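Chapter summary example.
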Amino acid sequence: MRKSHSKNAKYCIALFLAVFFLGGQPVEFGKEKSFFQGYLIPKPIIRIGLGINLTDVKISAASGMNIYEVKPNYRLLANDTDEIFIKRNRKELSKIIYFIPNSQQSYLSYKGRDYRGIFVLKASSKGIVIINILNLEDYLKSVVPSELCPYTFHEFEAHRAQAVAARTYAIKNLGMNEDLGFDLYDTPKSQYYKGMNAEHPMSSMAVEQTQGQVALYDGKLIDALYTSSCGGMTENVEEIFRGFPLPYLRSTECDYERQREWLVNCDNNVFPVNTNILGQNSSPDSWHANKTKKELEKRINRYYPIGELIDLIPLRRGHSKRVVELLISGSKTQIIVKGLKIRRVLGLRETLFVIYREYDKEGRITNFIFSGRGQGHGVGLCQVGAYGMALAGADYKEILKKYYHGIKISKIY
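The structure predicted for these 413 residues follows.
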């Protein structure tokens, strides 16, 4: 083993696969907790899953870390080391490992990213997971610029709106992945979180100036969904996520996403279906996807055994003109796909699209050309629209109240 200058040798631990949840008292929202040698994570606290079903894990520390095993009593495994490599083997052993920076000013690193707080490595129903436990406001200082790039969207009020939305979403969804031992993923499946590397002074200031502020409807935290670009209008939540209607997540016109003209350029023998559906006004974030029939056929059959793909027919559109019910016709069966799953099954950016078909000389479909607007699921706050409102002089509360109907902004800590 290599030596780490004047400190202890780097450690290599074989971590045996086992299903074992956090021993002792769990880290709870709203409660301060010291972790050894005076290391403190201020309240409120959040647990972020950085990876699941892991085999090999390499963790380093900026200025040393202590490593403890929990069974449920704590046992020191390594003191003041600055790097560790963990490998899983086939044997089973209940073991939870805590990685604690030597000082409050230090940080841990994993897969090229630096993180505030501590790490926990443990077994779960989905294999070995690594969890970053940190203060929720510090978490937001990474989420806000990760979700709304400050170099592209450089309006402060848009970042303040994003901070309140992201905070509301995080607190509302604490415990969402309790079976895996954490609250949220670090991916867009929850909220994009890139650690300290993503932090930006403007975004951090937006978090600090809105500290503890959340969006409430009828006194309760809202499900603060947001989308990258709505293409000119957001959609009612139940049309995309197939749940109950929510009074604050209604279809909203987004003037700041519109431009005068939207042109579609296609060659060869292309025949449109409902070409006037999206109208003449459109988003600057328009897109086109040309997919062969064979390509789509292969993809769709991963979800539904339709056989040969015959046609794709939009059956119903939502208030924003998004396709919310799509008939997939195949040689073996016909399937109606609804809501967000349409985007997933077809592999598209959005469900706000029209379909063009390309035919061969025998009149058989060879290609499907999708021409659409927006990017994301199209529900809740539109990030591009929020930026446009901020450019026009709106403050963060005006932005939030446009996209989340009937809400109040309240400070809860």
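To summarize the output: The first strand starts at residue 11 and ends at 16.
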